[in-house]
Design goal:
Layout lengths: L3 H15 L10 H11 L7 E4 L9 E6 L11 E6 L10 E4 L29 H13 L9 H9 L1 H13 L1 E3 L2 E3 L4
Antiparallel strand pairs: 1-2, 2-3, 3-4, 5-6
Helix pairs in contact: 4-5
InterPro entries: UBC, UBQ-conjugating_AS, UBQ-conjugating_enzyme/RWD
Pfam families: UQ_con
Organism: Ziziphus jujuba (Chinese jujube)
């Protein structure tokens, strides 16, 4: 009887030796999908992606957004993405590392974006999330806030909101909260 497992194992050993060593660890379905998403990214010119842990760790990366219009024009905002091995069946975890005065981002960096919560579907991808984040800066939404104070000011006094955003982005206090410069 031919021992198929032994034959297959021998073929794998020969392939490893021919390629100069052992192959990398097996990628999860989430990693494979994320790799596809990243290779197909079409970012706006005001956005960039970096891999602080190197290209071997695709599941953790950072996205920088520099809005070119709206209240946040001229600011630079850094987001961290943590992607689950079961992606795309679970939305990526996204946090804003830049402290920002924004109705949809709280002071701890949590982001209120429907596609990161109840409206996530496996057909969505990283490109969609990045465009959603970019849209938060061009069209902040006071109707679904995480920062209720910022939302109330945006709703009731857009000029004051703009002034608060400028003060925060320049590095200063809005109320009792200090914001580091992000321009």
């Amino acid at each position: 009887m031919i021992r198929l497992f032994k034959v297959k194992e021998k073929q794998r050993e020969l392939a490893e030796n021919a390629n100069g060593g052992a192959p990398g660890k097996k990628q999860s379905a989430g990693e494979l999908r994320l790799h596809k998403d990243i290779t197909e990214l079409i970012l706006p010119k005001s956005c960039s992606i970096t891999f602080p842990n190197g290209k071997d760790d695709l599941m953790n990366f950072e996205v920088s957004i520099r809005p070119d219009e709206g209240y946040y024009f001229g600011g630079t905002f850094l987001f961290t993405f943590q992607v689950s091995p079961i992606y795309p069946h679970e939305a990526p975890k996204v946090k804003c590392k830049t402290k920002v005065y924004h109705p949809n981002i709280d002071l701890e960096g949590n982001v209120c974006l429907n596609i990161l919560r109840e409206d996530w579907k496996p057909v969505l991808n990283i490109n969609t999330v990045i465009y959603g984040l970019y849209h938060l800066f061009t069209e902040p939404n006071y109707e679904d806030p995480l920062n209720h104070d910022a939302a109330a000011v945006l709703r009731d006094n857009p000029k004051m909101f703009e002034s608060n955003v400028r003060r925060a982005m320049a590095g200063g206090y809005v109320g009792q909260t200090f914001f580091a410069r992000c321009m």
